[in-house]
TrEMBL record, chain A:
InterPro entries per the UniProt record, alphabetical: Ald_DH/histidinol_DH (IPR016161), Ald_DH_N (IPR016162), Aldehyde_DH_dom (IPR015590)
Taxonomic superkingdom: Bacteria
Keyword Oxidoreductase: yes
Leader sequence residues: none
Residues annotated as domain Aldehyde dehydrogenase: 27-241
GO MF terms held by the record: oxidoreductase activity
Protein keywords: Oxidoreductase
Protein name stated in the entry: Aldehyde dehydrogenase family protein
Organism, as annotated: Leekyejoonella antrihumi
Automatic annotation (TrEMBL), chain B:
Source organism of the structure: Leekyejoonella antrihumi
Reaction it catalyzes: 2-deoxy-D-ribose 5-phosphate = D-glyceraldehyde 3-phosphate + acetaldehyde
Residues making up the signal peptide according to the UniProt record: none
Organism lineage string: Bacteria, Bacillati, Actinomycetota, Actinomycetes, Micrococcales
Origin superkingdom: Bacteria
Family: Belongs to the DeoC/FbaB aldolase family. DeoC type 2 subfamily.
GO MF entries: deoxyribose-phosphate aldolase activity
Protein name as it appears in the record: Deoxyribose-phosphate aldolase
Pathway it works in: Carbohydrate degradation; 2-deoxy-D-ribose 1-phosphate degradation; D-glyceraldehyde 3-phosphate and acetaldehyde from 2-deoxy-alpha-D-ribose 1-phosphate: step 2/2
GO terms under cellular component: cytoplasm
GO biological process: carbohydrate catabolic process; deoxyribonucleotide catabolic process
Cited InterPro entries: Aldolase_TIM, DeoC, DeoC/FbaB/LacD_aldolase
UniProtKB/TrEMBL annotation, chain C:
Protein name: Aldehyde dehydrogenase family protein
Domain Aldehyde dehydrogenase: 31-482
Entry keyword annotation includes Oxidoreductase: yes
PANTHER family to which the protein is assigned, alphabetical: ALDEHYDE DEHYDROGENASE-RELATED (PTHR11699)
Catalytic machinery residues: E262
SUPFAM superfamilies according to UniProt: ALDH-like (SSF53720)
Molecular function terms from GO: oxidoreductase activity, acting on the aldehyde or oxo group of donors, NAD or NADP as acceptor
Length: 299, 327, 498
């Protein structure tokens, strides 16, 4: 029997401004598989509030380019992400299986759904203005038009359980319209998100459009939610996150009049929804502003 | 101001040794544009001013004194013109305190009739000239037409601009014609020159940008008055058009220090309308223009309604057509 | 010859009967408040007391919410959209019939010129009801739900809090879409301007609107707080200051109450050298002196291209000299009274700050009445972005003039504020308008016009100016239950280390 080859392990880092830095804090934490064996998978970077700050800065500086790109161009770039995802399908199946403790067939279904979800959103880029915009028939000699625009920088608490399908289901609706995002990954299942960032880095998505931070949700989320340069926040990942109160996060965003997508659930309870359900445009609309422009009509 | 003075002023304003079409064009097209909707909204806003009691009585008398009582018909006769002159001098026989009108406006072959009829009243005689109303004649004919009026003793000449030339972009031609007409308005010796009122015929210029440019072009060429319309083309005077012309004379005064008059003509039929125009004169050009020397109404039927309203003010009861003379 | 003096032309007060005191409108009738408190509402132009108005306490708010809940469950919720729409049409028509009454009452209670209440506030308020009435049975066409699905559902009981600057118009912006989408309402008008809301309650009675569908509770901040914090309210819609809006957002955080906010602004009105100058000057005047500048979307920062700044300011000052400040009931009045002593104090203070900061203050000559709350139209020149008068919402007839050199600089300065409600652009160059409109971070961009409002046109802010839109198809969204129902969700989490 030949000697078993020692695999080359991957170092999982953060993804900020198109680069893959370690946490400025120098910290990392152990990530384990979710199957019965709970085997050690990797050390993930344990992001800090300063990493959040840097990510928000990167996201802000990417807004004008990404929002200002043509919708067609954004659609092309996002579809390209789908292509690269497909090429890395096997890698994601293994990672999702390990991270979520799924059987291989189940993990395959999840990864396929994630790729299809991404492509579904990618196709929306150049339809949103038509579907969500209007010419308004005002009572006067004015041309009056309302069209959606991205709100700016969106903070995203990625779902804790669904490490890839859930992740793309919260990133895609935010960026398809031209927002940029700072994503706090699932705390215990961060690895597919970091691999996903490698996909982004190799598929024409401009630096800073998506920024991904791994670490402790309870430590990082308050900094993201209270950051005054973050226009909106998706609290999906507050469900089942240790020591996280989504109400407190929402309240800390109030000072900058943040747009908030609350986690699913009733009352104070937050639950993670079934991400396999086909979405509607709710999450897309949540991160859009409607701009209305008036102009007189005259000779 | 004589025609030659106007020309030298134009050279100064345009900063050229001789006004060319392109120098006039750059100057006119350098004026701020007019937004139709905003301009009309402003005029509508001014029309909501509510004029009551003493201001209204004052406004009615002022409006009467600003009227260029007009007859410009093929069927005009000496009798018709004499009747109009009598009416202009004493608009309301039942009330001698009624002010006379500013001028009687006729074709130039009726100037002598009007002059005789108005002798001693102080009321001016205005003659339309330059192949009124279309202006489609040779310059020789237009100037001869004007000379006739001036020779016959017209105090004021209402000329028409060549709208065709204006719309074709031949601003120099329009300028030259106005300036030449202005020269012909001059009288030798101590006799006062005829005042030149330049009719833009805004109904044919159509856009407000054109109205503004035509106003400035006329002033540049020496107009003493700018006038909206011949009364033969619809629409004649409107509030927004007059608003733009009032802005033009206001801004011209700021530029040159000299005042130019404004005359909306045609389409102003009621006292309410007339008062709205006066409000506009006051708020846009300023109270200096609230004077027959600087603002006129070209109208025929307006006088009747002003008299009815005047009687209502005086008697406190509504009056009727039988109490206002027709002439 | 003397100047053209307009004699006073006051609108008659006789068209409106003001009661000496008003109860709360709950469950279709006027009722006394549980604790019996009341406050006076003043005519800000004279400081005379107009009426005693009930102070709603927490118990009264609770009673109103219960009435709204009952109406929602028993009558308004189950009713077909067609029937609901007919009630709203009725309301619109009655408002039109009683327009003069509403206009005079609004002017008395608010201080705004009668020409504005008559020509803007009341007609547009009625138009809002008319527009939304038609939506009531067409919601499945509004584009919020997939084609072929049933009409989207309402939220339930909506608490609405409105400001004093456009009392009836803001009421219409709030109540019309709420009713059209099938919600019932508890509305709190502003403390200083409750009267037209109470007259609107009578309109609801005349329209035979089912009891409890619209409830009106009068009071100050505490009443509003009780409404926001009431556990059986499904949604809060608020228009007012950014400070209070933030407090509301904080207060409902962690609940399932929805929220829409229409907050403050510090709009830039940007004038380029090629603008249609006479109309631009009108737009500047309308932008800041309409409703005494007490407008969230007021064009309070004039950004003028440096090359024409002197000319624009000169024209502006000349124009302001023709403004008529005085009796709001006079049909010739352009600028009326400030709504309250408190607001006047705030304006006065910020104007003094402007002087202290080194800006140059100018007002046209005008004689202000002795009684009442008055502030002359004021222009500050030589203002910088860092001045407080260029940053803070003054909410009064005070214009700050700043200059810029290039379109980029204009955009940068316009966007350099936490607010993002509105902006104005004046240029005759079409492509520049479209470029500017793209760049400006504001919910409403008026190009070559300003302060236009229409029921079909969505209105609302970016950034700290709030979220949600009012008016148009977009405005319906804030009153519909659209996100996927939580009950269908399930956790896919199969394990975990917590």
């Amino acid at each position: 029997m030949a000697a078993q080859r020692l695999p080359v392990r991957k170092t999982y880092k953060l993804y900020i401004g198109g680069k893959f830095p370690r946490s400025e804090s120098g910290r990392s934490y152990e990530v384990f598989g979710q199957d019965r064996k709970k085997e050690f998978l990797a050390n993930a970077a344990q992001g800090s509030r300063k990493d959040v700050r840097d990510a928000v800065k990167a996201a802000r500086s990417a807004v004008s380019g990404w929002a200002g790109a043509t919708a067609y161009n954004r659609g092309q770039v996002l579809y390209r992400v789908g292509e690269v995802l497909e090429g890395r399908r096997e890698q994601f199946i293994s990672e999702v299986a390990a991270s979520e403790g799924l059987t291989r067939p189940l993990a395959t279904r999840v990864v396929d759904a994630a790729i299809d979800r991404w492509v579904w959103y990618a196709g929306w880029s150049d339809k949103l203005a038509q579907v969500l915009g209007n010419l308004n028939p005002v009572a006067g000699p004015y041309f009056d038009i309302s069209a959606p625009e991205p709100t700016g920088v969106v903070g995203v608490l990625a779902p804790q359980a669904s490490s890839l399908l859930g992740l793309v289901s919260v990133i895609a609706p935010a960026i398809v319209s031209g927002n940029t995002v700072v994503v706090l990954t699932s705390e215990d299942r961060p690895l597919p998100a970091i691999s996903f960032s490698e996909v982004l880095a190799t598929s024409d998505v401009p630096a800073g459009v998506v920024n991904i931070i791994t670490g402790r949700t309870a430590e990082l989320a308050p900094w993201l939610a209270s950051h005054r340069d973050v226009n909106a926040i998706d609290l999906a990942g507050a469900a089942d996150a240790a020591d996280v109160s989504w109400g407190e996060l929402e309240a800390s965003g109030a000072d900058s009049v943040k747009r908030v997508v609350r986690p699913a659930g009733d009352g104070a309870d937050a639950i993670e929804p079934d991400w396999s359900v086909t979405p509607d445009l709710h999450r897309v609309r949540a991160f859009l502003e409607t701009k209305t422009v008036w102009h007189p009509k005259g000779r | 101001m004589s025609g030659s003075v106007a020309k030298s002023q134009a050279r100064e304003i345009l900063e050229v040794t001789s006004p060319t079409n392109s120098s006039i064009r750059s100057w006119l097209h350098g004026l701020p544009g007019v937004d139709q909707v905003g301009c009309e909204a402003r005029a509508t806003g001014l029309a909501t001013r509510s004029i009551k009691t003493s201001s209204k009585a004052w406004g009615i008398d002022l409006a009467i004194s600003m009227i260029d009582l007009t007859t410009l018909e093929g069927a005009d006769t000496p009798g018709k013109v004499r009747g109009l002159c009598a009416k202009g001098a004493a608009p309301d026989p039942s009330d001698p305190s009624t002010p006379p009108v500013a001028a009687i406006c006729v074709y130039n072959d009726m100037v002598e009739v009007a002059r005789a009829a108005l002798h001693g009243t102080g009321i001016h005689v205005a003659a339309v000239a330059t192949a009124f109303p279309s202006g489609r004649a040779s310059m020789t004919v237009k100037l001869a037409d004007t000379s006739d009026a001036v020779a016959a003793g017209a105090d004021e000449v209402d000329m028409v601009i060549d709208r065709g030339a204006f719309l074709a972009g031949d601003y120099r031609k329009v300028f030259d014609q106005i300036a030449a007409t202005k020269e012909v308005c001059a009288r030798p010796g101590d006799r006062p020159d005829a005042h030149l009122k330049v009719i833009l015929e805004t109904g044919e210029l159509v856009t407000y940008d054109n109205v503004r440019r035509a106003s400035w072009l006329a002033m540049l060429a020496g107009a003493d008055f700018i006038k909206t319309s011949t009364g033969k083309i619809a629409p004649a005077a409107t509030m927004p058009v007059t608003l733009i012309m009032l802005q033009a004379v206001r801004d011209w005064r700021e530029l040159t220090g000299s005042m130019v008059g404004v005359k909306p003509a045609g389409g102003i039929r009621t006292s309410k309308d007339a008062l709205r125009y006066l409000v506009m004169v006051s708020e846009i050009a300023g109270d200096d223009w609230l004077d027959p020397q600087w603002f006129r109404f070209g109208a025929s039927s307006l006088l009747g309604d002003l008299l009815l309203q005047r009687q209502k003010q005086r008697l406190g009861v509504y009056s009727g057509a039988d109490y206002v003379t027709i002439d | 010859m003397s100047k053209f003096e307009y004699a006073p032309a006051p609108e008659s007060r006789a068209v409106v009967d003001i009661a000496s005191s008003y109860g709360l409108f709950i469950g279709g009738e006027f009722v006394e408040p549980a604790e019996g408190g009341s406050f006076k509402t003043l005519n800000p132009a004279t400081e005379e007391s107009l009426a005693d108005v009930s102070q709603a306490g927490a118990a009264d708010v609770d009673r109103a919410v219960r009435a709204a809940r009952r109406a929602y469950q028993r009558v308004w919720g189950p009713m077909s959209g067609t029937e609901r729409g007919k009630y709203i049409f009725r309301i619109a028509r009655i408002m039109q019939e009683r327009a003069r009454e509403f206009a005079v009452l609004e002017t008395l209670d608010n201080g705004k010129p009668i020409k504005e209440s008559r020509d803007v506030d009341i007609p547009i308020a009625a138009a809002h009801f008319f527009y939304h009435a038609g939506w009531a049975d067409k919601l499945e066409y509004a584009g919020f739900t997939p084609a072929g699905s049933a009409a989207p559902k309402p939220l339930g009981v909506v608490g609405q809090i409105i400001p004093w600057n456009f009392p009836l118009l803001m009421l219409a912006w709030k109540i019309a879409p709420a009713l059209a989408t099938g919600n019932t309402v508890v509305l709190k008008p502003a403390e200083t301007t409750p009267l037209t809301a109470l007259l609107f309650a009578q309109v609801c009675q005349q329209a035979d609107l089912p009891p409890g569908v619209v409830n009106i509770v009068t009071g100050a901040g505490e009443t509003g707080r009780a409404l926001v914090e009431h556990p059986d309210v499904d949604k809060i819609a608020f228009t007012g200051s950014t400070g209070v809006g933030k407090g509301i957002a904080r207060s409902i955080a962690g609940t399932r109450k929805r929220l829409s906010l229409e907050l403050g602004g510090k709009a830039a009105n940007i004038v380029f050298d090629d603008a249609a100058m006479d109309q631009a000057v009108e737009g500047i005047v309308n932008g800041i002196f309409f409703n005494q500048g007490q407008v969230c979307c007021a064009g309070s920062r004039l950004l003028v291209q440096e090359s024409v700044a002197d000319d624009v300011v000169r024209r502006l000052k000349r124009r302001l000299q023709a403004l008529r400040v005085g009796d709001p009931l006079d049909k010739n009045t352009d600028v009326g009274a400030i709504n309250s002593a408190a607001q006047l104090a705030r304006i006065t203070e910020l104007a003094e700050v402007g002087v202290a900061e080194g800006a140059t203050r100018w007002s046209p000559e005008c004689t202000l009445p002795k009684n009442g709350f008055w502030f002359a139209p004021t222009v500050f020149t030589g203002v910088s972005q860092s001045h407080r008068i260029a940053q803070e919402e003054i909410f009064g007839p005070v214009l700050s003039v700043l200059t810029f050199r290039t379109p980029q600089e204009a955009v940068a300065k316009a966007n350099n504020t936490p607010y993002g409600l509105s902006a104005g652009i004046w240029t005759e160059k079409g492509s520049r308008i479209l470029w500017m409109a793209d760049q400006l971070r504001a919910g409403v961009v008026w190009a070559n016009t300003f302060n236009r409002f229409d029921p079909t046109s969505p209105f609302g802010g970016y950034k700290e100016s709030g979220y949600g839109r009012e008016g148009g198809r977009h405005g319906l969204e804030a009153y519909l239950r659209l996100d996927s129902a939580p009950s269908t969700a399930r956790s896919t989490r199969t394990g975990g280390s917590h």
